[in-house]
């Protein structure tokens, strides 16, 4: 069981002081990884001894072992995908984790990811939508594993509004988009650890153009969120070797639904026009 799951499972049994520390850890996992125990305790407004006591109450020998487990959980080791894949195979070969158990763990992790994602974004959700709604033009990018999230936002958004551009990096065309950024535009960057260098270059170009930056990412301490006006945070935990993007897709779908509701009847009318066109064009299979 990973340290996040241990915190959640034992949360209700902790003392008020340890409970407050546990909540701070769950809300600031990335900072736990990069800060010393003393610096992290100062940010959490608790004593370092409190963090040590919490780690030991969860079965760890000390803070360093607890922190080390979070580093592994976040996929920040060398060859993280390979290491996790090898661990799955080793467990299957030794019968420590039979395939039917792995199947159940996968869906349990997705449910937990959705719960955490819902909790983390409720207070910023409307702000994120307001920024998008007041943008002259919207750009969105997500590279490598985060591309499906960016593409799904782009595709659905285009059904009721047209002021959006997908930065897909096709033929290394990033510069063609960067040169068009203005202070009236908003750039949505999507990504999770390890973060793509291309995403960072988009952020720097947006900053140079004074564009507004929004992030859909895995942590408030990620380089995407650190440079964003507002961020939607999704959890990527799971028993597979690759980070899960299910909750990233879900929070994006929620954001699109909220945006359509804000756009009102005009959005519904635009959606109706596009839907009629798709049906009339034969885009969908019909065997009648």
From TrEMBL:
InterPro entries: Homeodomain-like_sf, HTH_RpiR, RpiR-like, RpiR-like_SIS, SIS_dom, SIS_dom_sf, WH-like_DNA-bd_sf. The keyword tRNA processing does not apply. Residues 1-77 form the HTH rpiR-type domain. The keyword Membrane does not apply. It comes from the Bacteria. GO terms for biological process: carbohydrate derivative metabolic process. One of its GO terms (molecular function) is carbohydrate derivative binding. Keywords: DNA-binding, Transcription, Transcription regulation. SUPFAM superfamilies: Homeodomain-like, SIS domain. Pfam families: HTH_6 (PF01418), SIS (PF01380). PANTHER family: GLUCOKINASE (PTHR30514), RPIR-FAMILY TRANSCRIPTIONAL REGULATOR (PTHR30514:SF18). This is HTH rpiR-type domain-containing protein. The lineage of its organism: Bacteria, Pseudomonadati, Pseudomonadota, Gammaproteobacteria, Moraxellales.
């Amino acid at each position: 069981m990973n340290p996040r799951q241990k915190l959640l499972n034992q949360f209700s049994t902790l003392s008020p002081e340890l409970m407050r520390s546990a909540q701070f850890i769950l809300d600031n996992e990335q900072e736990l990884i990069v800060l010393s125990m003393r610096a992290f305790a100062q940010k959490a407004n608790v004593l370092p001894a409190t963090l040590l006591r919490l780690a030991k109450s969860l079965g760890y020998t000390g803070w360093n072992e607890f922190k080390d487990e979070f580093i592994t959980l976040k996929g920040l080791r060398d060859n993280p995908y390979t290491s996790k894949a090898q661990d799955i195979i080793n467990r299957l070969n030794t019968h420590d984790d039979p395939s039917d158990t792995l199947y159940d763990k996968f869906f349990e992790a997705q449910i937990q990811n959705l719960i955490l994602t819902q909790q983390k974004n409720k207070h910023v959700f409307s702000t994120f939508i307001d920024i998008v709604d007041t943008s002259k033009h919207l750009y969105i990018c997500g590279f490598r594993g985060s591309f499906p999230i960016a593409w799904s936002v782009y595709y659905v958004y285009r059904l009721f509004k047209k002021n959006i551009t997908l930065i897909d990096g096709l033929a290394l065309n990033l510069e063609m988009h960067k040169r068009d950024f203005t202070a009236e535009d908003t750039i949505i960057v999507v990504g999770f650890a390890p973060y793509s260098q291309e995403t960072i270059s988009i952020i720097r170009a947006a900053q140079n153009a004074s564009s507004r930056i929004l992030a859909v990412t895995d942590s408030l301490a990620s380089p995407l969120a650190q440079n964003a006006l507002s961020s939607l945070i999704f959890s990527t935990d799971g028993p597979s070797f690759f980070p899960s993007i299910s909750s990233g897709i879900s929070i994006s779908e929620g954001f699109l639904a909220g945006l359509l509701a804000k756009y009102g009847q005009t959005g519904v009318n635009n959606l109706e026009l596009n839907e009629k066109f798709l049906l009339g064009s034969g885009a969908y299979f019909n065997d009648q």
